[in-house]
Design goal:
- By secondary structure, this protein is of the alpha/beta class.
- The protein is 26% helix and 17% strand.
- It has one domain.
- The chain contains 13 helices and 14 strands.
- The chain has an eight-stranded mixed β-sheet with strand order 4-3-2-7-10-13-1-14, with helices on both faces.
């Protein structure tokens, strides 16, 4: 997308207005959107109206947006750019930033724990093919922060899991997740090898800094030059985080990633609640979270999903994918793992009961895109996850 095309789309979009629908954490909007060439600003503006309006959420506030840029910038499926398959698509982020700016947000911070690097986030995005300069054309005061390290903050902040936690009682994170008024999770509509689905809740696994929770994290203090993933601490539990952060509660608990990762994601969503949950399902992949998972295939569901509660939004998205959001372990898409959505619900984050969620816009049945029909059979043992 050229700068001229972007500005033309933004100029054509209607102004945000509040409508009569009462704002509620159990209102989730679904929109059909067949391609990234649609007027995303207009589509997303309508979706925000359907959940109660954007200005009430962000006017005169700092907004932090957690992107989903899982894996390296060179990972490709059939040569497609990552935004088409497994990354948050840049066009949806451009549209979100413009809408936030127009609704009165005073500062917008884009963040991600970019895979296995401490390099600046905007540099990582450039390597992935993003037009980073265009952000300054669509919104004022846009910042970038790679939250794998301490970054622009003077110290790490601690977020505590309500009720004491399941695996960890609390986490040390980059200041961006605390030094903000509104927290946005922009996820992709995908399956996940060890969590079943990777939506707005699973997206929070990436807020853990690899300086503390990475394979080459420091023993006592953070390693501010990390170059690894989170497999040892988050997946396999073959080591503890750096001692500056709380240790896990029960070292005798299961060491399997399919048990640990759903719980880590769920308790992170309780410790750092999501205020705006957005899921890009225009184009994606089925069968896993990235090209490194055996059997993944490109799909085009043609939907966007938006809410103000991560559990409810993820429940609706899971239903759009053709699954039961309350499915137990052993049932698709949670054949080999526990249900992250139900775990987050048990921590009081929100409801996953579709009967208690008001769906605005397109009904679930009309938006449904059965991911299972597109997944190629692959032994579970061959599937691997990077985050």
């Amino acid at each position: 997308m050229t700068r001229r095309e972007l500005l033309a789309a933004l100029a054509a979009a209607p102004l945000l207005t509040r409508i009569g629908r009462a704002a509620s954490s159990t209102v989730v909007s679904i929109a059909q959107c067949p391609s990234y060439d649609e007027d995303l600003v207009a589509v997303m503006s309508t979706m925000f109206d359907q959940i109660g309006g954007l200005p009430r959420l962000v006017r005169n506030k700092t907004v932090t947006i957690k992107l989903n840029l899982t894996g390296g910038t060179d990972d490709r499926l059939n040569g497609k750019l990552p935004g088409i398959t497994h990354y948050t698509h840049p066009k949806t982020v451009f549209a979100m930033c413009h809408l936030l700016d127009r609704a009165g947000a005073t500062r917008i911070r884009l963040v991600e724990g970019a895979y296995a690097t401490s390099a600046p986030l905007d540099e990582f995005m450039l390597n992935a093919g993003w037009n980073v300069r265009a952000f300054h054309s669509v919104a004022k005061n846009v910042e970038f922060e790679n939250t794998n390290v301490v970054g622009t903050g003077k110290k790490y902040e601690r977020i505590t899991v309500p009720g004491g936690g399941i695996i960890f009682p609390a986490y040390n994170v980059n200041h961006s997740y605390v030094d903000t008024d509104v927290f946005v999770s922009m996820a992709k509509l995908k399956n996940h090898a060890t969590c079943g689905v990777t939506l707005t809740t699973k997206n929070l696994f990436g807020i853990t800094p690899i300086s503390i929770y990475g394979d080459d994290a420091g023993v006592d203090e953070p390693n501010e030059n990390p170059s690894s993933g989170r497999g040892a601490v988050g997946h396999a539990a073959t080591r503890q985080p750096a001692r500056c952060a709380p240790a896990e509660l029960d070292p005798q608990s299961p060491r399997e990633a399919t048990w640990r990762m759903p719980r880590v994601a769920a308790e992170l969503s309780a410790a750092r609640p999501i205020d705006i949950a957005f899921i890009d399902g225009i184009q994606s992949i089925a069968g896993g979270e990235g090209p490194w998972v055996d059997g993944v295939v490109p799909v085009q569901p043609g939907v966007l999903i938006l809410g103000t509660n991560s559990v409810s939004t993820d429940a609706v998205a899971t239903a759009v994918m053709g699954y039961d959001p309350r499915a137990p372990r052993g049932t698709a898409p949670f054949e080999h793992c526990d249900n992250t959505i139900l775990l987050a619900e048990s921590l009081g984050v929100g409801t996953a009961d579709l009967q208690n969620i008001d769906v605005a816009g397109v009904p679930i049945d009309k938006a449904k895109f059965p991911f299972a029909d597109y997944i190629k059979a692959a032994p579970a043992a061959e599937k691997q996850s990077q985050g």
